[in-house]
Amino acid sequence: MSIKTVAEHMRKHLILYTVLTILLALPIGYYYKAWIAHNKELVSNLIVIMAILTILPSAIQLKIEGFMKNLKDWKSMIIFLLYVYVLVPVIAMALAPALGDPLVSIGFVTTNAVPASSASLGYVFIAGGSVELATALIIISTIIGIPVMPLIIKTYANIASVPVPIEAIIISLTEVLVAPLVVGQIIRYIILKKKGRKYVDEDLKPLLSLWTMLALLVLIFLLIFSQAAKMISNPLVAVKIIGYQVAVMIGVFGVSLAISRALHIKYENHQAIVILSMTKNASVAAGIMASALGPQAAVAPALTPTIQPVVVIAYLNAENWVRKFLR
């Protein structure tokens, strides 16, 4: 069985494997709750390491070379950045207090303050969106997000009256996003020089895809494992997180459709904007929260992968309706 076959199988059934991972982590984590309580720092460090390993393949796949050539549609880019760093965080901040636990609510806001990963380009391609524009959007949102994300997190932390030093957020952001991005691009450059573009963008893709999915499942296991006792004693929190994440995504769909129609944004660009606005790199959010505040704050990022693909796929099935609406 080839790596490509295994990767395709994993991608096709990723939601199922995610749910199974959560169901496995809950009883094991509950059984080892005493051990977890005495080894919080070790668990947090493992979560950060797995977050970095989950993000690294996307950093290798990100095509920064030729980025400037795609910086043409400034209207789409400005709208996109307003969605990612204003609209989505504001919706999340409005819903987060209802989660009850301040740390969980900060994790929920952080989940909705991070940009999409290069893995979301697959959704854009399937939807018939502009992959070129989407690539530029991911790069620019990642660059701008480095100074903006800590400000969003700190703003909500102040609202929730949770003391979160901005230095801790910046350090954790550097650990789980900036460092993997730099290392990933160095690895990409070396492989490009030795093997060529076809090898990096096509031959290596199944391996990196499989790596990402396996690392993500391990990360989700660790996150749920670390918080199993609290989730079993209060399962309503998990239900709320999933429900509110759906609400955020639906809100983005509705607003973006109205604005794209009003501003006459063509279908291909609209799909790139909306899909990347509501898909979030949960691994980055999990790593930031685990590093800055501990595993409890990373519960929301852990649960996001269970619902995000479902909502996106449902949206993709509305392609014909969206085309007609934007005409």
Short description:
The protein is mostly helical.
Structural notes for this entry:
With 327 residues, the chain is mainly α. It has one domain: Na+/H+ antiporter like fold (Up-down Bundle). The protein is built from 16 helices and no strands. It has helices at residues 3-12, 14-31, 33-38, 40-61, 74-95, 102-111, 121-126, 131-159, 166-195, 197-203, 205-233, 236-262, 267-278, 282-292, 299-316, 319-326. Helix 4 (40-61) runs antiparallel to helix 14 (282-292), helix 6 runs antiparallel to helix 8 and helix 12 packs across helix 15.
Helix/strand layout:
Elements: H1 3-12, H2 14-31, H3 33-38, H4 40-61, H5 74-95, H6 102-111, H7 121-126, H8 131-159, H9 166-195, H10 197-203, H11 205-233, H12 236-262, H13 267-278, H14 282-292, H15 299-316, H16 319-326
Helix pairs in contact: 1-11, 2-11, 4-9, 4-11, 4-14, 5-8, 5-12, 5-13, 6-8, 6-14, 6-15, 8-9, 8-13, 9-10, 9-14, 12-13, 12-15, 14-15
